[in-house]
Amino acid sequence: MAFSLSFWEWVLASLVVIIGALVQGSIGFGVALLGAPLLFLINPMLVPAPVIIIGMSLPLLILLRDHHAVVYRDVAWVLPGKLLGSLMAAALLGVVSESALGLVFGALVLLGVGLSLSRRFPLPGGRHLFAAGGVAGFMATTTSIGGPPLALVFQHVRGARLRGTLSACFIPGGIFSLAALWWVGRLGWSELMAGLSLFPAIISGFLLSAYLAHWLDRGWLRPALLAVSALAGLTAVVNAAWQLLS
């Protein structure tokens, strides 16, 4: 079976993943929010399944490191919502055209940025966690970006508890999303091989985060991350709209 990426596409994708993993290993999220829109511009087949595949490995490593800080009561509320959201996304992906998919992708990237900018949300409770899980599951399955809704609901949580609890939500949530993508024919050998080829990059970024986390976990990183993601999402919207109108 042929590898779907050119050498330079793989190099650029690996660089993006290393930076995204470095950010996520430092602040708890970022590999999908930063990586997905940029990877989509490199090669659309990299999103969502390959990003979800590599995105599950990093939360696993973070969970091994910060498992002592996980609040499993919160995870138990989030996961049913994630499952429901993934099923709803699968229903959408089963009917949306390839030309319209880029428009949906870009719009949801911008929604993810908007959610990440929000500051108005109460302390996490059961129904809030379930709703955030539903939105996260839908966005993760369609775009691989499931972090912003959960980051919003956990915005009052910091440090190891944030990283560990989010990671405990991301791992089974990724399984839900991949199962939904396989069901609608958007996860095959090409996507699987592309995801596996980026594992060295995700591991490298995570290892670097152990040394740079304290330096990166500062006020400038969040707005920079959101600005790059918004620009890439807007570019995806413009490109998709141009293709639909031409």
Automatic annotation (TrEMBL):
Pfam families: TauE. InterPro entries: TM_pro_TauE-like, TSUP. It is found in: Cell membrane. Keywords: Cell membrane, Membrane, Transmembrane, Transmembrane helix, Transport. The keyword Transmembrane helix applies. The chain crosses the membrane at residues 12-39, 45-64, 76-94, 100-117, 129-152, 164-185, 192-212, 224-245. It is a multi-pass membrane protein. Belongs to the 4-toluene sulfonate uptake permease (TSUP) (TC 2.A.102) family. PANTHER family: MEMBRANE TRANSPORTER PROTEIN, TRANSMEMBRANE PROTEIN YFCA. This is Probable membrane transporter protein. It comes from Natronospira proteinivora. The lineage of its organism: Bacteria, Pseudomonadati, Pseudomonadota, Gammaproteobacteria, Natronospirales.
